[in-house]
Amino acid sequence: xxGIIVVTHGNLADVLIQTCFKIIGKRxxxxxxxxxxxxxxxxxxxxxxxxxxxxxxxDGVLALTDMxxxxxxxxxxxxxxxxxxxxxxxxxxxxxxxxxxxQSKEIDLKEFASKIKNQGQRNIYRVAxxxxxxxxxxx
Amino acid sequence: xxxxxxxxxxxxxxHARAAAKLVxxxxxxxSDIKIVKDNVEADGKSILGVLLLAAPVGSELIFRVDGExxxxxxSAIEQLIEDKFGEEE
Lengths: 139, 89
Fold this sequence. Notes:
The structure holds two protein chains of two kinds. By secondary structure, chain A is α/β, with parallel strands linked by helices. Chain A has one domain: Rossmann fold, CATH 3.40.50. In chain A, helix 1 crosses helix 4, helix 2 packs across helix 3 and helix 4 packs antiparallel against helix 5. The mean pLDDT of chain A is 93. By secondary structure, chain B is of the alpha+beta class. Chain B has one domain: Histidine-containing Protein, Chain: A (2-Layer Sandwich), CATH 3.30.1340. Chain B is 33% helix and 26% strand. In chain B, strands 1-4-2-3 form a four-stranded antiparallel sheet. In chain B, a hairpin with a 2-residue loop joins strand 2 and strand 3. Chain B is globular. At the A-B interface, helix 1, helix 4 and helix 6 of A face helix 1 of B.
């Protein structure tokens, strides 16, 4: 089964995982690492590498990071040559929920990463557009 | 195929945790489960799809269940909604 690691600045990663588990229940093989502002990048990298090693059972690991170009993403990129790793940036709650619910399905890591990217993008709505669409359909 | 209209009775309607419970229940059945509200159809086995229905308390949801265990599935779903998703008032 594909492992999932969420890596962000601040406490975002930990809280995203906790929130996801609160909604859909606790899942296995999903971990987070929040990089605090005062943390040393080398130390953070070692911690993340340990988690990736633990999560990879041969099916690979999907890393969800906060922003392209930020330290969490850059650290994951530096690991990507040595591990079977896919990275998707711009993590949001629908992506984490989708990843957690799709994780146990038989799916290839590349396809999984691409699905989660699409889900993340598709689940951003301008609420007024949705409500007006529903209103029109009603009428 | 069975079709049944059910009304949400819990105070918060189909919010995230309620939707998760509904989807987890739906996933236990082989039948295809669709939920329709205001002509928008959602896959009953997808939490993000179900949330898009944006269904508050009092909403009428039409469940379309199709498959070998459709009767068991619709009964279980009705029970969950009647039980207000196990939420306290």
